[in-house]
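A further point concerns the way the authors explain their paired sequence and structure data. For illustration, here is how one protein appears when written out as sequence plus structure tokens:
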Amino acid sequence: MYLNCHSFHSLRYGTLSLETLVARARALDIAALALTDINTVTGIYDFTRACLKAGIKPIVGMEIRNDDRLLYIGLAKKQSGIGELCRLLTARNCDGIALPTIAPDFAEVTVIYPLPNVPPELKAHEYVGVRPSEVNLLIRPEWKRYLERMLILSPVTISNKTEHNLHRILRAIDRNVILSRLEPQDVCAIGETMEPVDKLLEVYRDYPQLIANTVMVMEGCNFEFDFTTPKNKKYYTDSRQGDATFLTGLARAGLKKRYGENHVAARERMEKELKVIDELGFSGYFLITWDIIRYSNSMGFMHIGRGSGANSIIAYCLGITDICPLELDLYFERFLNLNRKTPPDFDIDWSWQDRDTILEYIFDRYGRDHVAFCGTNVEFKYRSIFREVGKVFGLPKEELDALATQSVDMHDDSAVVKLVHKYGRMLEKYPNQRSMHSCGILISEEPITDYSALEMPPKGFPIVQFDMHVAEEIGLEKFDILSQRGIGSINDAAKLIRKNRGIQVDIRDTALSKNEARCNEFLSRGQTIGCFYIESPAMRGLLRRLKCADYPTLVAASSIIRPGVAQSGMMKEYIFRHNCPDSFEYFHEVFEEHLGDTYGIMVYQEDVIKIAMHFGGLSAADGDVLRRAMSGKGRSLAALQRVKDNFFASCAAIGHPEGLSREVYRQIESFAGYSFCKAHSASYAVESYQSLYLKVHYPIEFMVAVINNQGGFYRTEVYVHEARMSGARVTTPCVNNSDYETTVDGDEVFLGFMHLQSLESRLARLIPEERAQHGAFCSLEDFIQRIPIGIEGVQILIFIGAFRFTGKSKNELLVQARLLLVNFRPQDRNLMLIREPAKEYKLPVLERSAFEDAFDEIELLSFPVSCSPFDLLQTRYRGDVMARDLTAHHKRQVKMLAYLISRKHVPTKRGTMFFGTWIDVNGDYFDTAHFPDSLQHSPFKGGGCYLLLGTVEVDYHFPTLTIHKMAKLPFIPDPRYAHDKKHAFDVHRQIREDVSMTDRAPYPQEHEIGLPRRKMGG
């Protein structure tokens, strides 16, 4: 009898999860139930599965609303009815077509109108819904003629009164008002709960026709969905056989190009893969991926292919990846096995500058009716919950900021804050809004609106209303089309090298960079700032601990830095075994045979499969279930438990001692996710090497490219420092030399106008465009006549030194600018056909401090360019020990003076700790550890220079300074405010630091790992 149920997928309206809704219906012995969320089908597939599992007939549809006005409810008679509703909503969401007040003439949808919106005439599939509170209205004459077409409409939105309060809070959040400002029409009735059916029927006892109509409608709705068949585009050609033939031809041509004519192992692997791909029906998936890459190559774009599909020699031969599976012994079963129901993952990266072009091609090539992004539900998060809920209770901004930024135990204990906590906890994990998946593209065989309405987020590509997990469950596999700034840096660096040096670097030739001698030197020393994936402090520390000096070690490092491996202690054990290969035994021969290249340690996802198969005797399919569960992709705990039971039973049958089997499974469990498959690591390592090659051989151009791509672990200042350390002469923006982006000429680097935070973006782009069209600016007056700019913009450019070509001081230029602009008429700017020579003004010479420029730069760029931060210190002391000498001071206490680059927050049982990254006066980097006890009396106090006292701990070639005491050192007063002491230290607060957060505990210590280093019985 419940034809109008809302879940929390009716965003900021419903309060019930799908599980709660179905469980409530089951508890009340309800035989059929309808989910009709507001303007969405997000939950219908999970709802259908839950209902079938509970023995309830699922009915699905949609409640159509225009803003908050209920127009009608549509119930799908069968699957095609959902398509009709989805297309109606898609027209509104994507094309701006208004929702019709009267429902269109649906073929497979039953329509229910609420009393306030009944049309004069009803079609055969249309009814009028009567709420329990409206039954008394039926005695009125105007409703008599509709009685034969009426049915029960008892909406379900909440469970109880408390949830009604939560519903009101959600509505206030949605309306952006405080609770007291909600209108009656904004909220549901307090009675919109699910009651026993007999209690509901009692309300309608005088109108048996309504009950009969309701039963008839429910019987007529038969939504049956086949969850087992793939819904992706089936074929690239016109048939399965055509796809298989075409793929085989491409693979053979690629094999010849990659391996030559007579590579037996490569040919055998190719034929084996082709057979499995065809049997699984994945040829079309491979060909569509190849087609996207083919287009990318035709446009001259660079891409990186990764994911489990990179284990495939077919992918390598087709040019989807640049990873040779034979070179790295990549595991075929990780990529495909005959029990696998879904295609392998292909994660394809492009430069952030090129990705939209690729997306436009996919939408055009495969049809906009068949392509969409996956959606994703953005949930209410811890900090945003307190802010959102506090706002509807009317708390002022200062209190909202405190709630959002302080831990719960520091919040006030007022009655209002207690209510914020109460309802905030209820809202946790509720969906708040729908957004676009970062990279997942769906390409369907049938129109995609058969399965979902589409929405158009601000980024301009349509999304389906469900997430990637639901997509996979209903048979739609995503293509991962990603963007990253690392590829942009590599691309742009190659262009800058060609422009600045006349050298053509074929950076796509991976043989050029892999295992190049000088690159390996930089790698082993952790000199990788700016390089994709290997520039973070943690990664540079790992490279130094491993003395990583070759490609295979870098591949391993790319995976062992991942949380699953690192948190399990496997990373620490790997470092030990890598540095001390004679100090351990393999505790079982299977680990030596199959994990010998990683010292018997599980580093990659496919290692789980290897051990499950070769030690535990499981099938490849069960090994993959285990691997998927451990990587967080398996959603079935029951399947994992079955495989676990099989593992121990199989180990016992093989004859392994129970203790040994438990130790192996403990390692598998501790490995638990967030690791890479080997091919994925190898793909990352290739890109890391490409960027490292450019950094080593063309450091200035490479660092300029990194600066321009605004990507990486650090702020711009750090990359400017790296450029300077590489021999660049870095200068502030200049109107005659700088562009919007940073440029390089020889070894001189001109920062771009984009870095001037307070300069309008319009002006930042116009200045180089005007100069390119009409030549260099010859004076300040010439500039003002040609560029539509006010005094504020001119002052910014003067203060940053953009008119230094005039030879005049900033003080002179400021006076001249004011004199020029006081009587300047903008309308004359374009009328002056012949420019008059600039007038000269005789001004008194005004003295300037040598450091005024540095403080101008800090104010406008957030860092000094004309000098080092160390030059601005009040003290001349520079520390007793330099970073380059730290390894010689193991276990000694040292005093250092350093400039703060970044710090990482790490929670521990004893409180917060930080890891810091610094540079010394020579510009060299080093790292520090700050434990809770030292932070109590020596906290961080923002960006700047600090005096550090600590003990040096050298861990496998990598020194860390454990801090006992530290103090931030004062810079000189701002000389620009020599006569205004009140503001003499204002600008100092603009000196920045990078702060990153993690919720993960510190890596375990050696004694906590417990990995056997001696052979175990069996």
Summary: The chain has 39 helices and 23 strands. Residues 240-259 form the longest helix (20 residues). The two ends are 63 Å apart (CA to CA).
